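Below is a filled-in request sheet from our internal design queue. Each sheet records the structural input a requester submitted and the sequence that came back. We keep these sheets so that new team members can see what a complete request looks like end to end.

REQUESTER: design group, bay 2
PRIORITY: normal
MODE: inverse folding
CHAIN LENGTH: 556
BACKBONE (tokenized):
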């Protein structure tokens, strides 16, 4: 799984060729497993998982776990440190479910993990003073005590191309079919496709014989409707650094072969959408993003003859230039496992806003299951959330919807966990990549940690993903359906202001709420937590609230 990335000193591995010395892909990861429900007195164990598979030296991990009540007040805190090198590390923190010896007030509490890594023996700093890009932060909600279940609006569940809801649409249902997919994975064309018996991390680039054709067949055979093979753009030279012996013609041909494999698979399987694209960028001083529909290999690396190992030059770390190119070409993207600090820098600001980027970036990963899982039964519990970073992008002015993916590097594409991105494609539309891209461009998606559940947000007569002008009252309704009989334990209707660069807040804990917003721009989305702790996020709606006397104009 991808988390906040660390800008650590880079070292050469003695067993690797010289051109592999620059490990652009090196990363430290921290995960928090915070059970939604505790026992009768709210007691539970929090599991902290740390990993740094390519660390050049033993690391000292400093961590802090903070429990806050409904008002955001800190009510418990745990601190610690541990040694880490080569092997993953787990730390279990037990809470007896009490505060100052008494049972806490029932409600939804928040538990936050903050962690940083430093070379063992090096001078450390308190977490509060650590560099912006050097701290992983993970936050999950937990239920404390007995709470009343929210009342949900009636909802006719949407059909799916295959599966338990594949029958004809229910009467009065929305005119869409839900396609469930994993929009982030790698194959043997970059650092994915690792054999399950020995896959412990990212693979040596292009070392696996399992490419996109095998990945698409695997995902379809396991019940997915969509798989995106998003290959690292800087690995088409066969390295994680820069290969001076790179065959530029072979690199470009490999990318085109991936596009051809997806097109051929779609032609044979109209019940599945195969997409081959790019994961552009690096971790160190960068940030990964998917580009779903580029017909060209983009890159910055050159071989010793100065030949570009790509079809088109894009400067490493130049997000402003990339956004401009994407907008001009009609390419759309996704912020992959974003961090709120130190990534996607533009104008010196992390997740900095640009009009080009706003046009190009359609999605933001809100949750991922761990990237190096070898689980094939959809029961992986290691995962991480990026809602804080996605909210920062929304507050900056980006019109992004939430996605939920797996970032698979092992040969278990889409099945390590049950999380999916749900894409609403119009009934009767010709299935395929074009229909998917249209839906993503319209932000008609929801993110779910449970493939059996659906979430759709409506706003008056508008659907999630839309941008519209409103006058007077606005009724927001979160519509939930589960083919497995799951129930909703908590609802949070969230609100924010695009371009404010402030904080997203909870508007209401009801599934349906009617308000009259103050004049100006707003966005709203719904977050639902099931009784089993799995969470769903709707896409936002963007509302330009006007007073009745204002003349109509186009929403922006």
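RETURNED SEQUENCE:
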């Amino acid at each position: 799984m991808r988390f906040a990335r660390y800008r650590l000193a880079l070292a050469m591995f003695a067993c690797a060729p010289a051109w592999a010395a620059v490990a652009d892909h090196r990363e430290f990861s921290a995960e928090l497993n915070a059970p939604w429900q505790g026992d009768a007195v709210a007691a539970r164990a929090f599991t902290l998982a740390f990993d740094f598979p390519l660390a050049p030296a033993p690391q000292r991990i400093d961590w802090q776990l903070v429990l806050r009540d409904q008002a955001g007040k800190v009510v418990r805190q745990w601190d610690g440190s541990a040694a880490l090198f080569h092997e993953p590390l787990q730390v279990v923190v037990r809470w007896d479910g009490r505060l100052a010896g008494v049972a806490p007030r029932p409600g939804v509490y928040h538990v936050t993990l903050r962690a940083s890594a430093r070379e063992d023996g090096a001078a450390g700093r308190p977490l509060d003073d650590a560099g912006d890009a050097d701290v992983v932060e993970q936050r999950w909600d937990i239920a404390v005590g007995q709470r009343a279940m929210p009342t949900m609006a009636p909802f006719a569940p949407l059909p799916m191309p295959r599966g338990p809801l594949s029958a004809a649409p229910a009467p009065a249902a929305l005119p869409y079919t839900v396609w469930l997919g994993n929009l982030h994975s790698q194959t043997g064309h970059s650092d994915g496709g690792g054999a399950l018996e020995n896959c412990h991390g990212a693979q040596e680039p292009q070392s696996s014989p399992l490419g996109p054709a095998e990945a698409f067949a695997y995902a379809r055979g396991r019940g997915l409707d969509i798989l995106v093979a998003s290959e690292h753009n800087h690995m088409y030279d066969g390295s994680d650094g820069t290969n001076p012996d790179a065959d530029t013609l072979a690199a470009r041909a490999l990318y085109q072969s991936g596009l051809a494999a997806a097109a051929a698979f779609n032609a044979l399987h109209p019940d599945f959408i195969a997409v081959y694209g790019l994961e552009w960028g690096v971790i160190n001083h960068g940030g990964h993003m998917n580009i779903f529909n580029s017909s060209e290999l983009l890159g910055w690396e050159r071989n010793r003859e100065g030949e570009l190992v790509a079809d088109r030059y894009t400067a490493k770390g130049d997000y402003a230039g990339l956004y401009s190119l994407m907008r001009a070409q009609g390419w759309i993207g996704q912020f992959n496992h974003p961090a709120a600090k130190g990534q996607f820098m533009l104008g010196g600001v992390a997740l900095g806003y640009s009009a080009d980027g706003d046009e190009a970036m359609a999605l933001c990963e809100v949750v991922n299951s761990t990237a190096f899982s070898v689980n094939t039964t959809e029961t992986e519990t290691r995962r991480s959330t990026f809602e804080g970073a996605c909210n920062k992008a929304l507050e900056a002015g980006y019109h992004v919807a939430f996605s939920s993916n797996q970032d698979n590097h092992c040969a278990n594409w889409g099945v390590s966990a049950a999380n999916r991105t749900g894409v609403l494609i119009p009934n009767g539309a010709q299935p395929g990549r074009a229909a998917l891209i249209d839906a993503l461009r319209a932000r008609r998606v929801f993110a779910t940690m449970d493939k059996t559940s659906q979430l759709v947000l409506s706003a008056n007569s508008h659907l999630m993903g839309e941008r519209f002008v409103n006058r007077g009252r606005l009724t927001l309704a979160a519509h939930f359906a589960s083919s497995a009989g799951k129930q909703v334990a908590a609802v949070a209707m969230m609100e924010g202001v695009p371009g404010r660069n402030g904080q997203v807040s909870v508007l209401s804990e009801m599934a349906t709420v009617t308000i009259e917003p103050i004049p100006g721009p707003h966005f709203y989305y719904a977050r639902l937590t099931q009784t089993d702790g799995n969470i769903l996020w709707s896409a936002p709606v963007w509302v330009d609230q006007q007073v009745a006397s204002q003349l109509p104009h186009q929403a922006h």
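SHEET NOTES:
- Residues 1-22 have pLDDT under 50 and may be disordered.
- The chain is about 10% helix and 35% strand.
FILED BY: M.R.
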